[in-house]
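The passage that follows is intended for readers who have already worked through the single-chain material. We present the inputs for a multi-component assembly, then the predicted structure in tokenized form, and finally a short commentary. You are encouraged to pause after the input and sketch how you expect the pieces to fit together before reading on.
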Amino acid sequence: MVKQFKNVNELIKGISEDENFKKDAIKQISENGLGKFLSFLRCEHRMTQKELADKMGCSQGRVSKIESAKDDSLSIRDFIDYGNALGLELEIGFRSKEMKWVDMVKYHAFQMQRYLNNIVQVAKEDKALEEGALNFCFETLKNVPILILNTMSKLPKSRFNKPIDGTKGKVHISGPIQPQRDVNANNEAVAS
Amino acid sequence: MTEWRIEPTDAYARAHKYYEKKQSAELIAVLDNLDRYFKVVSHGVHPQFVVSGYIHDEGKGVRALDQKGGGKGKLRQTRLYVYPDVDQKVLYLITIGDKNSQKDDIKLSADFVIKLKGA
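Having made your guess, compare it with the prediction:
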């Protein structure tokens, strides 16, 4: 029977025989997660180590060292320089060790509201920007439920057993269809 | 949306067990690079855009992930041959070898891809 694995740790556990080897391998592989993440960012930006090194003003060997360094030997300076070269800003944050996935979802939901409020604040008293902000809010209102429905469709007993493709189908999220002038009136009311 | 998976061939499984017993440090080093490569691919970067010093194109879409040797324990140069099947989202692990077996390993890998695509 063909065996497939979700990640390298599973592979090691699945086909290695020696327990000490499994422990050593998994430990060593997990010691340089940050460098691997930087390597992912570079590839996502379709850059070679040489191209990134040129932007950072260092040698390709330096980039290679950063990407393969153990987590505890990387400095904040490395992240800032690497981010600058990729056009990214470094964000540092802490979260409670007790935080669960559900707490993360709630946290990001509130963060989303915060960012939407910022957009609305910036758009105030500019008709064109207000229109854009409102359209973006509607877009968000449509897309976020689609993401959640797609996740729900992965549950075995889900009623939504087919993924919903936002580019093909449409999800009706409003009440009964209203005449166009009423919709406009509502939009103005929301925007004000 | 399916997620990427790793599928070892029988040849890989045999080589893995051999290296685990005889050259475990080399095996860990190539598995570390496999983890590096797989994390990038499984986070949505097309395999052709994963470029690094440890990755070598061997033709027919086969890529060799090496560890150069050296370091504290002076590891022997070792290569892991993989084939990323983009359509199926499967990363096949074909075999592991060293400089001496390089020619045979590349031939084995090319034959594997031909058989896989013909199937």
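Commentary: Chain A touches chain B at residues 2-12, 15-18, 21, 24-25, 28-29, 32, 36-37, 39-40, 43-44, 46, 48-49, 60, 64, 67, 150, 163 (CB under 8 Å). The longest helix of chain A spans residues 127-152. How closely did your sketch match?
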